[in-house]
Every structure is written in structure tokens, then in C-alpha cells.
Amino acid sequence: MTGHGASAKTYEMSNEKYKSKGGILLHSRTVVEKSNFVSTGVLTYAEGDIIEIEMTEYKAFELGDSVKLTVYSPGGIYVFTSTVVAKDHGSLMIINPPQNQKRFAEKRESPRIEVNQNGAIVAFTPIGGEKRELPEKVELDLRNISISGIGFTVRSEMSFGSEVIVDAELDLGFVLPVKAEIVRSEETEQGFYYGARYVDLPSDRVNSLRAFVLKKQVETHFSLKRIEQGKRIFK
């Protein structure tokens, strides 16, 4: 199978018909190769940091395995290396390298994952103003999260408006301090919802955040997949 790499060509996404939620890799026949073993499957999911390959020989791969993928996409053959991060009955979840996301997926921000986590706002800074510590932490309910930002609700409307940066502590199973600029707000049945994007997030916190988002993305995908499979069974 290694011979395919010699003729591989990258596909410049110039034809609009190949654009889709999962990019041009979706539904492509894919060869997955590790040391002394090669198998073939179909790439069925490509979103954010993960891709899924459905195959019958998924049990031959272990979490953490380094693999080489040869994807036979509509635009040609594409070869890259990656790592197995999860597996389910009949499929492998593999890290989607950043260069793939830039080249093959639609131009968009990192997908936000629905979550049900807690946190608190400890201070805020009006843009162009001085930082203001809150006398008491304001509890928040974290509704969604991504590598680029968060969405959360608070029970009462904060008086800082939209042009502000908040200092928050997110409870993700570990405490993650972040600074985030509010970019939208609206009143909902659960309280006041705010969408925010991170500001100056240190690299160590980015790594912790990426690991959390990746884990949640895998869990969410497998959960939705089981629900869909259940619906088909009972039709």
C-alpha cells in the first residue's frame, strides 16, 4: 500500500460541488496502515479535530496507534499520518490534522460542542477600561465550547453589556481560567446567554482545552450515532 503515496496529489478545492459539511474527504475509500497491518474502510465523518473511518477490522487497531491514511477522495489521492484516539463497534476515530481542516473542510470556525458544565465569572474589563473584580463570583452554566470560544448562561443579566472581556473559571473536570470577549448576548428561558471568544489563551491552557473538546466531540459523535442506529432498527 505504500506505493500509493508516490502518486498522491493534493486537491485544491476549486470546484464548488465538492464542498460539504465534512469536506471532500467524506465517503471516500480509505486505507489505514500501521506497522505490519493494513486495512480498508470508508471515511464517514470529518468535523473539527476528528475523522471517523468505518471498517470491519477495527479491532486490529489500538488507542494511540500511529497510522498512515491513504484517502481516495473525489479530487485524487491524499496521504497523511495521524493517531487513533478512540474506537467503537465498526469504526476508528482518528485525529484530523490541522492542514486537513484548512485544505479540505469548509472555511468555518472550530465546531462548538454542546456541554453541561459549570463555571464562574470572577472579573470583567470594559474594552478600553480598567479591570473590575467582582465582590462575589457569578455562577455560569457552560452550554457549548470550542477551541475558539464558549457559550454560557447566567441567571441574571450582567450589567457589563457586550463590549467587555470577562475573566472566568471553567469547571471541565479541572479548573480552566480563561479570558473571553463577549461577542453576543440574548435573553433565553434559562437566563441570559452570552457567546464569547477567548483572548490571549496561553499554550498550556490551549492544549488542555483541545484535549477536553476532543474527548467531548468523540463522546457526542458516538452518542448521536447510536441514537440514529436505534431509530433505523425500530423503523
TrEMBL record:
Domain PilZ: 107-214
Domain of life: Bacteria
Pfam families: PilZ
UniProt cross-references to Gene3D superfamilies, sorted A to Z: predicted glycosyltransferase like domains
Protein name per Swiss-Prot or TrEMBL: PilZ domain-containing protein
Protein's organism: Paenibacillus gyeongsangnamensis
